[in-house]
Fold this protein.
Amino acid sequence: MSEDEYNKEILEKVKGMIPSDAGNSSVEFEGPDVAIYVDNISAIYRDEMVIKNISASVKKRLIVRSNPNKLMEPEDAVKKIREAVPADAGVGPEGIRFVPEFCEVYIEALKPGLVIGKGGSTLMKIITDTNWVPRVLRQPTMNSDVIKGVRQLMFKESVFRKKFLGTMGKKINRIGNKSEWIKATALGGFKEVGRSSLLIETNHSKILIDCGISPEPGIKGHDANQGGENKAYPYLDSMNTTLNDLDAVILTHGHMDHMGFVPYLFKFGYTGPVYCTPQTRDLVALLLYDYIKLVMKTGGTPLYGEKDVRTMLTHMITRDYGEVTNVTDEIKLTYHNAGHILGSGTVHLHIGEGLYNIVSTGDMKYGFTRLLDEADTRYPRIDSLFIESTYGGPNDITPNRKQAEIELMNAITNTVKNGGKVLVPLFAVGRSQELMLVLESYISTNPQYKIEAPIYLDGMILEASAIHTAYPEYLRMGVQQRILSNNSPFESEIFEVAKGERGDILDKGPAVILASGGMLNGGVSLEYFKAMAEDPKNLAIFVGYNSVSSLGRRIQNKVSEIALPDEDGKMKQIKIGMQVKTVEGFSGHSDRRQLLDFVRNLRPSPRKIFTMHGEESKCEDLSRAMGNAMHCESRAPMNLDTIRFK
Ligand SMILES: [Zn+2]
């Protein structure tokens, strides 16, 4: 596309609305947004209606900044900022960073509210005093190497980001023709769980919702290539187009089966944006770096390297729930809370001016959890709904949550009383925090459940919890308030961090071990399992989803013996003497009833329903049940099916 084809009218329109006393001004596209640079920034901030009016007239988010030659020298600006921000905001010595490429200053604080000030007054003072536009970041209450690393990377790549967003902005605002048709193609995760990917196409746009890999592939023993068919990756080769023709990748959340294939796209030529929430970005970084490490450790070859993950991260554009964003000239994206894990979002796409509306749930929880609010049911419009079916089968009714908690606590306390150890294999992100909240609540409020043994956290659980503390406003009110008042349940003294002392923990007496690696397909939980499996006093408790082919599922099904590689990679028979228990009710997925309730409570009601992300029979059964309940067309597509909407 030549540069001339993009919509310069929008920029002219914005320019025409800038108050004259703002002085010299320039306007440019910055990704999906419009950025204004002026000499006198106060002239624009003086009246909040100015920004609102401009923004409304071009239907875009507006970013206002000072011209670079008006910025105060950083040494002087730092002093002004430190004067303006109260000391108890907790801005560390490295907490203020200038990003001249964007004429912005990032202020990282333990209490962002104090940097913002009442009604934004402190921010305004910083702008008028220094001309730098402040952006406030929350410092997690626990050390998080991932958040540090991601933020560092974004600063370091500012020059690239500026250029990338500029080019992308022109592409999004190209002068497009009206689209006549819309279709969706199932590229992965239909009638199966794993490698989720859905391609949405019009005459002029191509976007992917999610692009995952099947649960923990690449690890030795994984069934990725069994039966001659590659079941680990989405069918991107069916797209009939080059990766660079893709306009955008939109992620619903940061689990491997929804985003694990994206770095591979970058490795093979994709250069466009990846949309996600800020929390998803951090969780993606955590899980992908860990995945690479894990594959290398087990002697495999990862699909991509850390470099490709970094490339992916620098192409990310983060959006909060409720923000409307043009991902192409004709498709608008809005995230709504999905309640599944931190930052998980359902994707609402508005295509054309009122032409068609699609909602894809990703993974979704419409029910009580201690960690998150349940999924949103209000949308401006829904024509077609794509909904997950993980627990969509007729028998997938999870027990009462309270009963599940008591069952879990009894199992743990009894094992410990009998001198055994308890292993809880957990997905580091989501289920771990949920379980920590349960343990913390019972132990601190109910003497009956006092556990006379240490509770260890091992693997990525700690880092994942730390990321949660950077985003308390996205957690359920009670947890949020505790983090904000310096009483984070994730830092409770009942938890001990396992620091390179796995042998010690295993040699000592009773213990409760929360270890990452939910399905035992690798990760630290497998190490513990190997060491604990033979002793009948020990107990393994499963609380999350185990895919059909996972080791977790086989053990849940009570196999008595299993062959696993030892430290030198030699296969060794392990007798399973330990007790094995599955406690349902803690899932981050909706059960059958919750899925049906969600659809019934959706406003407006969808006109067509498509089920996905579930074993074949569950997708089919749920589709029938939803069609009957809603008196609408419903279907369980299979991979490679294409659905035409218009
Ligand atoms: Zn998920």
